[in-house]
Design goal:
The chain contains 10 helices and no strands. With 269 residues, the protein is mostly helical.
Length: 269
């Protein structure tokens, strides 16, 4: 979900395993399915269908669907490489600082780790957006820590990123355009029709609140550790890793399940 795809290199990775959401084809109450014979269909010379446009929108927004028509949680979280790109620079920084007790070599080590992923994407000829955003985030984090001389400030960018996402998601709920609906609705081929159904609007607002809760939980746990200073650095770095991609995937999965359309019973022949 876009709310977790920020530029903070220590939080949740940007997108580049199927979700355990029950049997395929069960997520299709009143909307076009994605099972056999019901997938997006081209309109030929008239251009792409609404379903194809919806799928493209969802993918660009960072939410990917698998062959069963469910959200592909691993791919949405950036895949193995994307998760590694979000985790390793912060982990390398912590290890280097713990060993040397010197800020400068630890910051250079983190920057080098981020640079490796950029080079890897160049070699793989993959889009550089995520890697460039990651190295920019690490660069800003390194600049903050170097400017203050405090190792814990390497992680402070994530707090502001989380606050910005929380504000944006809460605003989307208030305006009745919840982020979960905009993304999951397209994956489910609901388009924007869900906004006409009060119940669908309600559950998508609830799903958005789930992601807000994930972001807020990060702040509740990590901000006190930050204010502990260097004694809390190891705990801050560890919780940043655990509450990054793993917690995001869990929150996204819960939001997907909560917003699942009710299965409508078919009339008897």
């Amino acid at each position: 979900m876009t709310a977790a795809n920020g530029s903070d290199p220590h939080e949740t990775p940007t997108p580049d395993a199927a979700v355990p959401d029950g049997a395929a084809g069960t997520d299709t109450a009143g909307v076009q399915g994605t099972g056999k014979g019901t997938g997006p269909q081209s309109t030929g010379p008239q251009g792409p269908s609404v379903a194809e446009l919806a799928a493209g929108y969802a993918e660009k927004a960072g939410v990917h669907r698998n062959s069963a028509g469910h959200v592909d949680m691993l791919k949405t979280a950036g895949g193995i490489q994307g998760i590694a790109e979000s985790i390793l620079p912060g982990l390398v920084f912590l290890i280097a600082f713990t060993i040397t007790r010197e800020l400068t070599p630890a910051l250079f080590a983190a920057l080098a780790a981020a640079a490796v992923f950029t080079v890897a994407r160049l070699v793989q000829r993959r889009p550089l957006t995520q890697a460039l955003a990651g190295i920019a985030g690490v660069g800003i984090s390194a600049w903050l820590a170097n400017s203050t001389g405090k190792a814990e400030d390497f992680y402070v960018l994530g707090f502001f990123t989380n606050i910005a996402y929380i504000a944006g998601m809460v605003l989307s709920i208030v305006l009745k355009w919840p982020i979960a609906g905009l993304l999951f609705g397209f994956v489910r081929n609901e388009g924007l029709e869900w906004r006409k159904d009060p119940e669908r609007l309600r559950v998508y607002r609830l799903g958005t609140w789930v992601v807000v809760a994930v972001l807020a939980l990060r702040l509740v746990v990590q901000v006190p550790l930050y204010f502990m200073g260097e004694p809390g650095l190891a705990a801050l770095a560890t919780t940043r890793l655990l509450m990054g991609a793993p917690l995001y995937i869990l929150g996204l999965w819960v939001a997907w399940l909560l917003t699942k359309p009710a299965v409508q019973a078919r009339p008897a022949d």
